Amino acid sequence: xxxxxxxxxxxxxxxxxxxxxxxxxxxxxxxxxxxxxxxxxxxxxxxxxxxxxxxxxxxxxxxxxxxxxxxxxxxxxxxxxxxxxxxxxxxxxxxxxxxxxxxxxxxxxxxxxxxxxxxxxxxxxxxxxxxxxxxxxxxxxxxxxxxxxxxxxxxxxxxxxxxxxxxxxxxxxxxxxxxxxxxxxxxxxxxxxxxxxxxxxxxx
Length: 204
Description:
Elements: E1 3-5, H1 9-24, H2 31-40, E2 41-46, E3 51-53, E4 61-67, E5 70-75, E6 81-87, E7 92-93, H3 96-101, E8 108-111, E9 115-121, H4 122-131, H5 133-159, H6 162-172, H7 176-179, H8 182-189, H9 193-203
Antiparallel strand pairs: 1-2, 2-9, 3-8, 4-7, 4-9, 5-6, 5-8
Helix pairs in contact: 4-5, 6-9
């Protein structure tokens, strides 16, 4: 399970600063909103291979990755896992349906590396929306970005060849080969490991 830290203070300040910069790249934040975000956020550290969210549990927080990598996955009918997302620094990790419906999740979130995230709970997110009109724009833009990214991924899975999907992934996330096991990359691309090996040989 993840470790939520309130001390030491330095990692919290570092993590919150990274999230504030992300939010301020969308819209300027008032000092009081910055203080409120810092007050209601917490640092979550998790070791490689540990679960940030188990399937069947409610996703109670949204996570902004400060360092490390996470993957979001689902379980297929044959018992195998299917990787939905590969996420790294400055990405947002969330089991969307579970978080917004506050219902048990059909997705799991696992650490690909030792990772540090800033977690903001569902209750605190709703409170910030209610108290700060500016923060609604932050939420809207982040939600739009998520759904555009999700729709692009679905489109690519439907229309692009395995080689094209692989090349697009390398352009979007050039670090992925050094940071993610090939079995997860293949699953994310919707191909087998043998197909991934063939494609890699073709593009070398």
